[in-house]
Amino acid sequence: MKISSLFTVDGYGVVVTGGASGLGLAFAEALATNGARVTLLDVASQRLTVETERLLAEGWDVRGAVVDVSDHAALDDAIAAAAALYGRLDVVFANAGIDSGPGFVSGWVGAGRPRNLAGALEHYTDERWNKVIEINLTGVFATLRAAARHMRPRKSGRLIVTTSLAALKCEAVVGAAYMAAKAGAAHLMRNIALELAADNITVNAIAPGFFVTNIGGGHAHEPELQRLVAKSVPMHRVGFPADIAGLALFLASPASGYITGQQIVIDGGWGLGEAD
């Protein structure tokens, strides 16, 4: 058997939440261009239409549906519709997420960063906290729950959660709610992996470091910020969505069949510390 055959996802039924941009779109493209049938779920209707039409024009089997992961009934219906359309549900990426606004310091790198009162604990509002937890943690729970209802009867499936390096490493520039939600999603992933292992359903997480996406107001697209962050990344560059496609394909494919409950960091070595 050729090892390459272990990475086949041809004909798979796939759902990606937050699939219209950034890492979610990279996950969707990685699987669609390798023969999977992919449903992109996203709250951004215009962007979803543009990306779905682009992928269809390129010849890939994709469809889009406007869904907010905080609307659990709509999320359940969308995942059920994908499973019915494909006659199977093989892979679900619980990827949708939002940023939580500023942390308690300003600026991504460097010594002497000023304190940021807007991100200080005593100024953190219930509304801000609850919204991030609702999307980034409870939304993951609701996505995994909906997917399990279709995977368990088949005793087969791949569930993949987008966490963050923030689940492992404190970062003062990132809001507290984001840190807590991503750490919670990582531990939720491990617990669900333990529960579903006997059903041959693997549950793993991808933990990105600094990637150029639209989260956080799209500031990651700024060349100067990329340059500053790259100085503290041992590989001396930031991540781009294309960098994550191979990992997504690996976790979705038979190649990862004996891996579950793991959080795989992809960060250019950023979490290891700074290097010259």
Rg: 18 Å
N to C succession of SSEs: EHEHEHEHEHEHHE
Number of helices: 7
Shape: globular
Estimated helix fraction: 25-40%
Assembly type of the shown chains? single chain
* Major sheet attributes: 7 strands, parallel
Mean pLDDT: 94
Spans of 5+ residues with little confidence (pLDDT < 50)? Answer: none
- Structure classification: alpha/beta
SS strand fraction? 5-15%
Total beta-strand segments:
7
Strand adjacency order, main sheet:
3-2-1-4-5-6-7
Q: Give the termini distance in whole angstroms.
A: 43 Å
List the helices and strands and how they pair.
Blueprint: E1 13-17, H1 22-32, E2 37-42, H2 45-57, E3 62-66, H3 72-86, E4 91-94, H4 126-151, E5 157-162, H5 176-196, E6 201-208, H6 223-232, H7 245-252, E7 263-266
Parallel strand pairs: 1-2, 1-4, 2-3, 4-5, 5-6, 6-7
Helix pairs in contact: 1-7, 3-4, 4-5
